[in-house]
Structure formats: C-alpha cells, structure tokens
Amino acid sequence: MTQDPNRLRADLSPELLSRYSGSCPRYTSYPTADRFAPLEGAKPWLALENIRRLSLYVHIPFCHSLCYFCACNKVITNQYGLASDYLDCLLKEARWYRDRVASAPVVQLHLGGGTPTFLNDSDLRRLVEGLGEVFQLGSGDAVEYSIEADPRTLEPDTLVTLRELGFNRLSLGIQDFNTDVQLAINRICSPQQVEQLTTAARENGFRSISYDLIYGLPRQTVAGLQSTLDKVMELAPDRIALYHYAHLPHRFKAQRLIDTDTTPGPMEKIAMQLAAVSALENAGYEFLGMDHFALPGDELAQAARAGQLKRNFQGYTVMPADALVGLGASAISYSADGYWQNLHRLKEYSGAIREQGFAAYRGWQLSEDDRLRQYVVMELMCRLQLDKEQVSRMAGGPFDEFFRGDLARLQPLFDDGLVEQDRDYLRITPRGRWFTRNIASAFDAYLHGRSTETEYSRVL
Ligand code: SF4
C-alpha cells in the first residue's frame, strides 16, 4: 500500500504520542524472544532441510570500550586473542549446520555485534571464507551483505577488504554528534570520521549506507539533535535508523553509568521525535515504519512503496529467506517450524560449541495459532494492512469472529484514527504508521494480561 510520506507527520500531536508511549515489543519475531523456553525435544532446525533461500547472521560481541547506553550482548576487551578463539568457535558452529541445511543460496549475510569490525582484516577474511566452505554464499548485487561498523575504529582500508569479501551495505553507529552527549554516553566520534568513511564507502561501491541515530540520550536537547541531523543531512546516508533510547538501568548494567537526571523527560523526547521526523521529511526521507527511514531511491523505500518489505531480527529487508541461521553468542535462528537461540555468555557459548558444535539453549516450536498470528503481525509491520479474506482462509473462519477479542483491544486505536477497516481490509492509516507496534501488539496472544512495563522498551 502506498502512502504519501508528506502526510505522515501532519496528524501527530504530543498528546497522541504520549497516549501510546508505553512499553511494547518491537516484533522482530513472533512470538517475541522473551517467550522462548527450553525446547524439550523440539528441533525446529530440522526444517532447514527443506529451505530454498537462507539468511545468515553472525554475532561478533567484542568492543574496545563501553558505550553507557548499550543494551547489546557484548564483551569489552582489548585482548585480540579472545576474538581469534571465538572465530574458531563460529566456524565450528557453522560446520554443525553443514549436513543439516539444504544447499540453498545465502541471499543475506549480516555481521552484527558488539563490533564486527573489531575483527582485523585477515580474520574477517577467515570468517567469510570459512562460511563459504559450509554455505552457498552468493555474490554480486543479488545478495545483501551488511556489516555494522564503529566509525571510531573502522579504517578506510578495511572497507576495501569488506568489498572484496562481497559486503555491499554498511551501517555506521552515529547516535549523536554533540560533544556533551558523546561524553555522557562515553562514545566520542567526530563528524569528520564519519564523513571520511562515508566517502570511502561510496568510492568503494557500497550500495547502501545506513546511519544509526538515537534520541532521548542523556544531555541531548531538541536543538542539539537538530544540529546532529543537519550534519547527517549533509552526508545524505541512504538509510537512517532513528531509535528511541530506552533507559532501563535495572536491566542493563552499562546504563547505571548514566545519571538519570540528565536524561530528557517524555515530553522533551516527544519534541525530539517530532523535530527529527520533520527534519528527515524535509530532507526527502521516507518513513518505512518502526524507526526506519530511507531516501526514495533506496531499495527499502521502493519495496515499502510496493508493499514488499520483509522483517527479520535485523529489521526491515527486501530479501525474503525461508530461514535464518544465527551464529555466535546469543544469536537467534529461525525456520518454518520455530526459533532457537544460543547461549548469551561468551564462556558458556564457547564451551558448548567446543563440546558439541551447537549452543542453542532455548527457543520456540510454532503452533498453528502462532503461525497465523506471526503472519498477521508481520503483515501489519511490513505491509501496514491485512487482507481479511486471506487471514480468514488461514484461520479457518471469518476474520472478524476469529479476532473478536483482538479487535476489541484495537478499539481505542480505531477511535484515534490510527487503524481502520472495511469488509475486505484492516489498514494502518498514515498517522497510525508511528504506532505500528502498538497496533500489531493487539494480535499478540502472549502479551495480554501481564505487565509489559519493564520487559519491553517504551515506544517513547
Ligand atoms: S553500543 Fe556498540 S560499540 Fe558501544 S558497547 Fe554497545 S555494542 Fe559496543
């Protein structure tokens, strides 16, 4: 469904944003990962034998220093030997899949972290070549190879290596360019470093460059965020992810190093969001959904307009795959039958891999109801609408009856004009796009009747 991006912000008001600013899952999976439990005999990886296209995710948990806002699974170290040993484990884990996954082409490879560029060039090469011995790695523009990089430490020469290895997308963690904010989060990075890397990535033929920005950080102001955005607009990345900082010091130890009194309040964060959205729209960026923006020519924006976006643990994508194999500590995999997740801690993950080549400790076997709701949630997140007849066929009964309770939960969002329906479709309205996860959550069978306040990040 195509929607006019210029209409997106028009209907947003601080009152509306604050009404739906509570905690809510981000739906990179359904059910969400916090539902995962010991698999007790279930083996969702068996469905890998029947796939036609595969995605790979590799988690590199190492970082040189701690960013105080961080909620990722990471290990702060300057001992490079840890990374070399870990690489041995990753390749051993990859080999565990050798006889369990159909020889399907890999259409997507994503290196996330931590800091994937913590690995030196020769280990990056060892990793990708090692994966190539197990999986059918594709090449060229038909595949999406992406890497998250830390602009503080990435050397322009590494971009040459990455291109040689097939990487064509680069994601740079910017967060905010203001010195006060950077000091408060312990992440000092100059615009010049980012500009140099952006230029080098373009010269080396990276097809898409993405920046991560965060609003709601300590010592951040609306004016300061605006100045960061002005600089970002000059560099014109193809994609921008604008995340909301969720201050959850009781859950994330690093965040205890942030003085809570320096974090902006809810109304200030709403003002930041509105200012950022306005700046991005004025610069021609299209809102894809869930924090993500792209220039109109970028393939994600094109796919969004054509109703062809997909979503996985890395966010939105244009590359549909039947399954994802996640390698490394805490990595999550999925197949048509369900999800499985690796042990989080480096020592436990490495121990399990050395012992048995496999480190999953929990997951989820999908039931028929899960599959139906997974379809509903992902359609809403990616296509912003539900074809009621299609869903009725899957449910084996009329949509309005099957989802009577879910639709009742949606009533306030109908009343606020965020979602609408007729006989054939349930649709998210242009103003409703900012509340996609609130809308999807009405169909989450596991969410209702329990407290979400401390479990999920707040929408604002
Ligand atoms: S934000 Fe990124 S670089 Fe900073 S500690 Fe977390 S994972 Fe490491």
Give an overview of the whole structure.
The longest helix is centred in the N-terminal third of the chain and has 17 residues. The N terminus is likely disordered. The chain is 35% helix and 20% strand. The protein has two domains: 122 residues, Arc Repressor Mutant, subunit A (Orthogonal Bundle); 288 residues, TIM Barrel (Alpha-Beta Barrel), CATH 3.20.20. The chain is globular. Iron/sulfur cluster binds next to loops. Monomer. Keywords: 4Fe-4S, Cytoplasm, Iron, Iron-sulfur, Metal-binding, Oxidoreductase, Porphyrin biosynthesis, S-adenosyl-L-methionine. One of its GO terms (molecular function) is coproporphyrinogen oxidase activity.
List its traits:
alpha/beta, 460 residues, binds iron/sulfur cluster, TIM Barrel, 2 domains, 20 strands, 3-stranded antiparallel β-sheet, Arc Repressor Mutant, subunit A, disordered N terminus
Bound small molecules, deduplicated: iron/sulfur cluster
Name the poorly predicted regions.
1-8, 450-454
Question: What's the average pLDDT?
Answer: 92
Separation of the first and last Cα atoms: 26 Å
Total separate domains: 2
C-alpha Rg (nearest Å): 21 Å
Keywords: 4Fe-4S, Cytoplasm, Iron, Iron-sulfur, Metal-binding, Oxidoreductase, Porphyrin biosynthesis, S-adenosyl-L-methionine
Family: Belongs to the anaerobic coproporphyrinogen-III oxidase family.
Subunit structure: Monomer.
InterPro entries: Coprogen_oxidase_HemN, Coproporphyrinogen-III_oxidase, Elp3/MiaA/NifB-like_rSAM, HemN_C, rSAM, rSAM_sf
Topology:
Elements: H1 14-19, E1 54-60, E2 62-63, E3 75-76, H2 80-96, E4 105-113, H3 121-134, E5 136-137, E6 144-149, H4 156-164, E7 169-175, H5 179-185, H6 191-203, E8 208-215, H7 222-235, E9 239-244, H8 266-282, E10 286-289, E11 292-294, H9 299-305, E12 310-312, E13 315-317, E14 323-327, E15 332-335, E16 338-342, H10 346-356, E17 360-365, H11 368-383, E18 385-387, H12 388-395, H13 399-402, H14 404-415, E19 419-421, E20 425-428, H15 436-441
Parallel strand pairs: 1-4, 1-14, 2-3, 4-5, 4-6, 6-7, 7-8, 8-9
Antiparallel strand pairs: 9-11, 10-11, 12-13, 15-16, 16-17, 18-20, 19-20
Iron/sulfur cluster binds near residues 72 and 115.
